[in-house]
Structure formats: structure tokens, C-alpha cells
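Recap for those who missed Tuesday's class. We walked through two folding examples back to back. For each one, the amino acid string is listed first and its predicted C-alpha cells come directly after. Nothing is annotated here on purpose, so try labeling regions yourself before you check the end of the notes.
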Amino acid sequence: MNKLTSKQIKALPLMAQGMSGVDVAKEVSVTPQTVSGWKNDPEFMANLNSIRMEFLESARCQLQQSPTRAVQTLIDLMENSENEEIRRKAALDVLRLTGFEPGKHGCYAWGVGPTDVESMTHQINGTMDIHNMLKGLL
């Protein structure tokens, strides 16, 4: 960032958060055309993308921490809601998320994939559909 101006450095997090070029220009006291020109500066854009990646990583980490709270919310709704329809919907959501969806005979396993060597080999080789079909015939 050593070649960037102080105004460009101030603009980077604003732009990374999605602020419009016009609003960024007002915030850092430059013209919108100046902000537009910065988008053609490789160093500026590389730094902007780097900050965007940091924001995305931070958001991803926050999302990874929220499933436990989401599950607890569903359980609380299922057990404690005064509204019977909300309790019913929460219970159905819990059942679906644990693999007990009507019409499905397996469990989701949340995308983990096969746990036996033969099935894993078929998945890697792209022959999983054939393998599952043959297993169904046996």
C-alpha cells in the first residue's frame, strides 16, 4: 500500500463494504471520476480485493459459529413456543435437518460423503450412480 494516497487508503474499506463510488468520493473528498480512475490502478484494485477477501473470511467465520445458535433456536421454538403452528414447523425443520424427510430413506450426512472405501472409490471415479443402482438391486 506504500504507493497509495491517504485518500485511496481511506476509500478501500468503504469500497470493500460495497459503498457506491459516488458515496466513497463524498466521504474521502474526491470526485466520482477520481474513484472511477482508481479502479484502473492495479495496486489499488489488488489492495481492494485483499480487503474484500478479509471481509469475506470474517463473514465466513461468523457463519460457521452460527449453526449451534440456529439449532438451539429451532429447539427452543419447538419446545417453548405458545403458537402450536410454530412448534409444528420447528419440529418438521428439525426432522428434515436430521435426515427424516418424508420420501427420503437416507440421512443427509451434511455432505460428508461415503465412509466406506468401495463407495469412496466409486465417487472418485465418477461411478457412484452405477454403484448405488447396483447396491439397490442386491
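Example two. Treat it independently of the first, because the proteins are unrelated.
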Amino acid sequence: MPVLAPDGSGGRAFLPDPLPRDVTLSTATWTAVNEATAALARLDGAARQLPDASLLRHPAVRREAQSTSALEGTYAPLPEVLAADADDRAHLGSELFEVLNFEDVAELAFSWPEERRLTLAMLGELQRTLVQGTSGALPDAGGLRDRLVMIGARGARLDSARFVPPPPGDQLRSGVEALLDWFNDPPSLPTVVQAAMTHYQFESLHPYSDGNGRIGRLLVIVQLMRGAVIREPLLVVSPWFEARRPQYQDALLELSRSGDWSSWIGFFAEGIAASATESGQKVEALVALQQELRLRVREGGKRGATERLASDLIGLPYVDTTQVAERCNLSRQGAANTVRALVDLGILEAVGAVGRATLYRAPDVTRILED
């Protein structure tokens, strides 16, 4: 459809057709979908080795936050992301602040009951939370965008843009509402296929002025959880796509041009399979490390809070004594003694100070997470 940019340049915007309820896929694509589904099942099985798999949610969400933000041009080193105190954002740089906003968004999305229908208001709440306090907090934050957006080189004119999503207005709103209807009442297709189709449609509509990529990739995890493919959000999808950014962007664009669902779904399923395998390997390594840390504590003659904290470090690789006191229900002196015991055992090491509190790191945990 023809559109006119504020600078007077003209061009054509793309309005995707509503999602179909059936697709024809090649044998190779079906194989990729089946492999992705099996890899997700293995990840879910690895998580169930833990009495409380939610313990690993924090590092998984932080890793996803760091990588999905990097895909959009906001980079913060993973060690800084893992160590950051979300309750003390006044001392964070703008990049780290924005990355941690994604953690808030993810936890909000994961808190909604899976049987609850996803609505336009809920999506808007995610987007508003994501951009709060950042340069993306534009007047239309939390609502569908009120401006024309272009995808391509920064500063490009409309007539040279790589891709132009639908202009703001009734057609954009209708497209997003149709997508939500499809998402809430999906067709009888494997959940991996559903997630691939939802992701394409969301990115093609590009409903918000900022944050579309990050929200779109978060919806992948939400949809896999709603489809009961995984039970905990331990899947980290963005590193695979970040490492293949040109191919990822080209695959989305090619589907808009050709309508070839099979090619896009095959690429997407390959990424999900690789991501689930990598995430599962980290979960298995952390489960094994948890047992090792408990054994080291016992062999060191310690029990109680020291053993509990050592066990929890697989989900909390950076701690200070205040956090330890709150988590283990200890006095400040008791927390300090517990931390000192783990330092003596080589399980924790001091890495610096945040304000007046010394920060400690579990190096065996961070090696697994940062590898």
C-alpha cells in the first residue's frame, strides 16, 4: 500500500495477510520442527531434575535479556547483567538499565496465567514497561504506534527502506487484533510452528514505536510455555539469532516477499532446536554443579545456611551479604559468616563493591553461564 513519510518521500508499506490455519511444509522443515520439539522436551526434562526449577529462571532471563537487547543495538556485557542489582537502578548505566527492563517485562509475562487470553492491553503493558525510563519512552508508549516506522539503515528515506510495516491506524490495529485472536485460539499445528508464525506476524506488523524485536522474541517463550512444551522459561533463544542476525532478518523479509512459510519455519525451528540444546546443556551442568557444591560444603564441615546458600548459587551467581541475610533469614553477622565460609571453601570470591557492600561471585557458576 502506498504511504508518504514526514520528509515527503514516498514508498509502499507491507500489510501482511492474516495468519493461515494450515501451512504446507517440506519434509526437511517437518524434520527440523520435530527436532526442535524433541530438544525442548529434553530441556524440560533437565529442568525437572531440580526440586525447584524456578531457581534457574533468574540467570536464564538475564541471559535472554542481554542477548535480545544486543540484537536491537543495546549492549551490556553479560557479567555486568548477571551482577546488576535490579533494585538499585539509579547507579546503572543506560544500557544496563534498558536490559534490566526486559527482565521486568519477562517476569510480568510469565506471571500471567497460561489460560488467560493475551490482549492488546497486556501487550501494551509489556511495551510500556520495556521502554520506561529509556529513549524509547515516546508519547505513544504502551499503545500501538502513532507514527510510520521504517526498517533499514539509520536515517534512510522511505523510498530506500529495507522494509516498511503497515502505517498507524485501523489496518495496523486490525492486524494486531487478528494476530491475538489466532494466538489465543491457535490451529492444530505443532507449537514450534505456531511460535514461528506468530513471531513472523508480530515482526511484520511492528506494532510499537520501539521494542518490537524484544517483545516478539519474548512471545516465542511465552507461546512455548502456553503450549506446554516447556514448563519453566529456561529457554534462551536470542544468542542463536543474534549470531545469525543477517540470516534472521533476511529470512523474515523473504517470507514477506515470497509467502514461503516452509523456509522461514525451517530456519526458526533450527534456531529453537539449537537454543534448547544449548540451554539444556547449561541446565544439566548447573544441576551437576549444585550437587558438587553441596558436597564441598559438607566435606568442609559446614551445614545449614552455608549449604543452602551454596545450593542456591546456581541461580544467584552474584550476591552480597544483605541479599544473603534476606534469602537465608540470617542476621547481618550470620550472613557475613556464611559468605566467609564459602569464600574459605573457594566457592565464592570477592569481585568488587557496589556502594558500600562487597559483591561476591560464584566463579564455577559464572563459567557455565558465560561460556
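Answers for example two:
The chain has a mean pLDDT of 92.
Residues 133 and 161 are 29 Å apart (CA to CA).
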